[in-house]
UniProtKB/TrEMBL annotation:
<dbReference type="InterPro" id="IPR015359">
    <property type="entry name" value="PLC_EF-hand-like"/>
</dbReference>
<dbReference type="GO" id="GO:0005516">
    <property type="term" value="F:calmodulin binding"/>
</dbReference>
<keyword id="KW-0472">Membrane</keyword>
<dbReference type="InterPro" id="IPR001711">
    <property type="entry name" value="PLipase_C_Pinositol-sp_Y"/>
</dbReference>
<feature type="binding site">
    <location>
        <position position="301"/>
    </location>
    <ligand>
        <name>Ca(2+)</name>
    </ligand>
</feature>
<feature type="binding site">
    <location>
        <position position="270"/>
    </location>
    <ligand>
        <name>Ca(2+)</name>
    </ligand>
</feature>
<keyword id="KW-0539">Nucleus</keyword>
<dbReference type="InterPro" id="IPR042531">
    <property type="entry name" value="PLC-beta_C_sf"/>
</dbReference>
<dbReference type="GO" id="GO:0016020">
    <property type="term" value="C:membrane"/>
</dbReference>
<dbReference type="InterPro" id="IPR014815">
    <property type="entry name" value="PLC-beta_C"/>
</dbReference>
<keyword id="KW-0378">Hydrolase</keyword>
<dbReference type="GO" id="GO:0005509">
    <property type="term" value="F:calcium ion binding"/>
</dbReference>
<dbReference type="InterPro" id="IPR035892">
    <property type="entry name" value="C2_domain_sf"/>
</dbReference>
<protein>
    <recommendedName>
        <fullName>Phosphoinositide phospholipase C</fullName>
        <ecNumber>3.1.4.11</ecNumber>
    </recommendedName>
</protein>
<feature type="binding site">
    <location>
        <position position="299"/>
    </location>
    <ligand>
        <name>Ca(2+)</name>
    </ligand>
</feature>
<keyword id="KW-0597">Phosphoprotein</keyword>
<keyword id="KW-0807">Transducer</keyword>
Length: 926
């Protein structure tokens, strides 16, 4: 969803290398559990439907003794390593098994270690595994049926007039070809993401475009003339380089060194169930299938087993669901835990086992079967102390974490039974009202843990949620709380920002309410919006919420962990998920999509239509745009309807676009979930997937998309003119500088300035010196004006001084007369009067000095303030005038630096390609 590593990502997805054993082939004996007297038929299996391959003790063993004897499994010279089981299906519940026995040793192991690779590398499927069946009377040699012939067959089967129309509009103008310059213009203008940095992701050059033409154009004469035909252009549109989402997004691109609380984690609820919550089968196989989807948090509802075995079981308590063995479940988890993802697996125990003996068995099974993968002691760098962050998925790679109630020293158990606790982390009291037993399910009856189970709990310790203030005061990052969906919704509505802050440090788990007896799901996007890490869903129900969950977690290498957006991780950022405005530091996007046509959507003659939905923040979520229904055409329908516009997507890193195809009666055909932040603009094919996110064989949609930074309506015209300018750092940009600055400040579009001045960071421009600025005419004019004002102030000052001295002299004269009178008529008081007169003269001198000092200080202060204000005003006028003289130097330096940098990047890219080709050549020769 967000948080990709900075810089250009080096794609690590490599083509599948088929083992020599598989190329040569081998003989296997196929066997079935049920005897069928049917003629031998060729069975063809779609590789995308293969869920798993197993050998050894994990392969299925025949139950019939006679069949085991026939296969020689009862003899000492045969072992389970000769058995091979292929698991396949279109959902997690209704799966099928193909069982084989190898004739020679070693073949089963090779098959199980390489069997899943093509399924996760769709673009690298070798043509040899693609089979097309004709009528029984037709035949074709396998050597003659090449991949090119298969593509030509599809082109003949379904002509594409809409692609031809696009080809003409883009520049061919009725000619059967497009020139190299026209193709380069098309790729860099239409197909390139305008949100990308031009230095890190430069537009394609002529030699790069020519390499693309060489890959898709089969006519050598046109290649020599730097031309591409309609056929080659069609192949390019469907090629890997033109995928609607960059291939690197399918690789592990997120930073996996952040604390666990900084990730969304693919999570399951009541993993063992296959149907509803009240009746139906519980299955050990469900744990394997859920783990194979990339799920990293699974749930185990543990109950006390019956005598005489007294083996703990897993079931949905107080319902009519069946029971399965806890030991078998742990064994299945140990076998499938890290087949799809190497990152840590969390086991969420709902522990109802009120027997100390059976809890000890549970702990022992975990220790023995998980071995070193089970994390018992906390890592040395991450002790269980307040304020200590959680370790990262990278540091916990290959580890299994236990979430179970932990025994504390002040809680003691009585003998062999354990006191049942009514209040657990799964049943926190509601904010408004009281939750019933039907709402909470069986979580209300969890029991206290024994010492053996408590020692297995470390970084995922469940506690009862009291309040956000209490959690912040405890400051224990390893404590987490679970919320039933109804309580989680109340918390989200009443304290959304506090919920986001809580999830920055601690982990939270959301699970469906107990009244969802049909195993339906709530919409996970609601709780992703506040940063909840483990949003648990019922994986057996492939409804819309589950489809969204599958589609979102397809990215980042299918590893089950997605890094949350930066503002959901940083403590100095605050976020309101109900905001309708631009988020600080986040550039909103405008997304447009036009559904042009479809290909091989259905094998029935029925009308089809397409729905387009946006999922994200409440301000971003919009449902539904819909095309018209095609006229009984599902093979190659053409819509070319109006463009669907999502004008302002506030948070692109948390938003997903869903494109789904339905029959006219509403029956689901296929869909695709696309992250908005990675959506490529231009013409693309969208390969559809089924409810389980498995790729459909040929079903696809041709669409035209646009994804760009959001610009308010009042700035739309000027912004368009700005980007249409040939040179972004020309004088034309300066004319709209105030517009761009205003848009950036008001709407968070800070990266607009980055795009305009992307080259300035590579050049050091010397500013004009102070002496040069002082010689500027505006400065001299202002200085002359200030000197004139200063002279006037001095005149006023002298006048005021004269008036003050006159007043003081007059007062002194009056005092002298009074003193003379006193001396003349009162001689006895001569000395005191003389002394008083002296004191008055001294006081008068002091006041005069103080007055002059204060006057000087005020004059200096006002002069400095006046100069400062005038200098600020001067800066506006001087800088605008100086820009005109500097822009020429700036442009010359930028152009020079840009050319040099481009040469360096091209040289490095060419060297990397040469080294890679040399390495591949050396490897092939070796």
């Amino acid at each position: 969803m967000a948080g990709a590593k900075p810089g250009v990502h080096a794609l690590q997805l490599k083509p599948v290398s088929v083992h020599d054993v598989l190329k040569r082939g081998s003989k296997f004996v196929k066997w079935d559990e049920v005897r069928r007297h049917l003629p031998c038929e060729v069975e063809i299996l779609d590789i995308s439907q293969i869920r798993d391959t197993r050998t050894g003790r994990f392969a299925r063993m025949p139950k019939d003794p006679r069949l085991r004897e026939t296969l020689g499994l009862n003899k000492g010279d045969s072992s389970p390593e000769m058995l091979l089981t292929i698991v396949y299906g279109n959902d997690l519940v209704n799966i099928s098994f193909l069982n084989f026995q190898a004739v020679q040793d070693g073949y089963c192991k090779v098959t199980t270690t390489t069997g899943l690779s093509p399924r996760y590398h769709v673009h690298a499927v070798p043509p040899s595994i693609c089979v097309l069946l004709f009528a029984s009377a037709e035949a074709i040699k396998p050597d003659d049926f090449t991949w090119e012939m298969f593509q030509n067959f599809l082109d003949k089967l379904s002509p594409r007039p809409e692609v031809e129309r696009i080809f003409v509009e883009l520049g061919s103008k009725g000619k059967p070809f497009m020139s190299l310059d026209q193709l380069m213009e098309f790729i860099n203008r239409k197909q390139r993401d305008s949100r990308l940095n031009e230095v890190l992701y430069p537009p394609l050059k002529r030699d790069q475009v020519h390499q693309l033409m060489e890959r898709y154009e089969t006519n050598t004469s046109q290649l020599e003339r730097d031309q591409i035909s309609l056929m080659g252009f069609t192949k390019y549109l469907g090629g890997e380089e033109n995928s609607v989402v960059p291939p690197e997004r399918l690789d592990i691109i997120d930073d996996m060194n952040q604390p666990l609380s900084h990730y969304f984690i693919n999570s399951s609820h009541n993993t063992y169930l296959t149907v509803g919550q009240l009746t139906g089968l519980s299955s050990v196989e469900m744990y394997r299938q859920v783990l194979l989807t990339g799920c990293r948090c699974i749930e185990l509802d543990c109950w006390k087993g019956r005598p005489p075995e007294e083996e703990p079981i897993i079931t949905h308590g107080f319902t009519m669901t069946t029971e399965i063995s806890f030991k078998e479940v742990i064994e299945a988890i140990a076998e499938s835990a890290f087949k799809t993802s190497p990152y840590p697996l969390i086991l969420s125990f709902e522990n109802h086992v009120d027997s100390a003996k059976q809890q000890a068995k549970m702990a022992e099974y975990c220790r023995v079967m998980f071995g070193d993968a089970l994390l018992i002691d906390p890592l040395e760098k991450y002790p269980l102390v307040p304020g200590q962050q959680l370790p990262s998925p990278q540091e916990l790679m290959g580890k299994i974490l236990i979430k179970n109630k932990k025994k504390h020293p002040h809680r003691a158990s009585n003998g062999g039974s354990i006191r049942r606790k009514d209040g657990t982390d799964e049943q926190s009291s509601p904010l408004n009202g009281v939750y019933t037993h039907q709402t909470l399910g069986t979580a209300y009856s969890e029991v206290n843990a024994t010492e053996e189970m408590s020692t297995l709990v470390n970084y995922i310790e469940p506690v009862k949620f009291k309040s956000f203030e209490a959690a912040s005061k405890r400051n224990k990052y390893f404590e987490m709380s679970s919320f039933v969906e109804t309580k989680g919704m109340d918390t989200l509505k009443n304290s959304p920002m506090e919920f986001v802050e809580y999830n920055k440090k601690q982990m939270s788990r959301i699970y469906p309410k107990g009244t969802r007896v049909d195993s339906s799901n709530y919409m996970p996007q609601l709780f992703w919006n506040v940063g909840c890490q483990m949003v648990a869903l019922n994986f057996q129900t492939l409804d819309l919420p589950m489809q969204l969950n599958m589609g979102v977690f397809e990215y980042n290498g299918h590893c089950g962990y997605l890094l949350k957006p930066e503002f959901m991780r940083r403590t100095d950022k605050h976020f309101d998920p109900f905001t309708m405005d631009i988020v600080d530091g986040i550039v909103a996007n405008t997304v447009k999509i036009k559904i042009i046509s479809g290909q091989f959507l259905n094998d029935k003659k029925v009308g089809v239509y397409v729905e387009v939905d946006m999922f994200g923040l409440p301000a971003d979520t919009k449902r539904k745009y819909r095309t018209k229904t095609s006229n009984n055409n599902s093979l190659d329908p053409v819509w070319d309807d109006e463009t669907f516009v999502f004008n302002k997507v506030v948070l692109p890193t948390l938003a997903s676009l869903r494109v789904a195809v339905y029959e006219e009666n509403g029956k689901f055909i296929g869909h695709r979930i696309l992250p908005v932040s990675a959506l490529r603009p231009g013409y693309h094919y969208i390969c559809l997937k089924n409810e389980l996110n498995q790729p459909l064989m040929l079903s696809s949609l041709l669409v035209y998309t646009e994804a760009q930074d959001y610009i308010p309506n009042e700035h739309q015209g000027k912004e368009t003119d700005l980007w249409d300018c040939e040179c972004h750092d020309s004088e034309f940009v300066i004319c709209y500088m105030d517009v761009i600055l205003t848009a950036g400040e008001l709407y968070g579009c800070a990266n607009i300035m980055d795009k305009v001045y992307v080259c300035l960071c590579f050049a050091v421009i010397e500013p004009q010196s102070i002496d040069e600025l002082k010689q500027h005419s505006s400065y001299l004019k202002l200085l002359k004006k200030q000197c004139k004002e200063l002279k006037e102030l001095k005149k006023k000052h002298l006048k005021k001084v004269k008036i003050t001295l006159y007043c003081n002299t007059t007062c002194g004269y009056v005092l002298c007369r009074e003193c003379i009178i006193m001396v003349t008529f009162y001689p006895d008081t001569q000395d005191p009067v003389q002394r008083e007169l002296s004191e008055l003269n001294m006081e008068l001198q002091k006041q005069t000095e103080q007055f002059r000092e204060e006057h000087y200080t005020h004059t200096h202060t006002h002069t400095h303030t006046h100069l400062l204000l005038k200098m600020l005003i001067l800066c506006d006028s001087v800088l605008l005038e100086c820009q005109a003289t500097q822009i020429k130097k700036l442009k010359e330096v930028c152009d020079k630096e840009k050319k040099e940098l481009q040469k360096i990047l091209d040289r490095k890219r060419q060297n990397s390609i040469t080294e890679a080709k040399k390495a591949e050549k050396d490897k092939a020769e070796a």
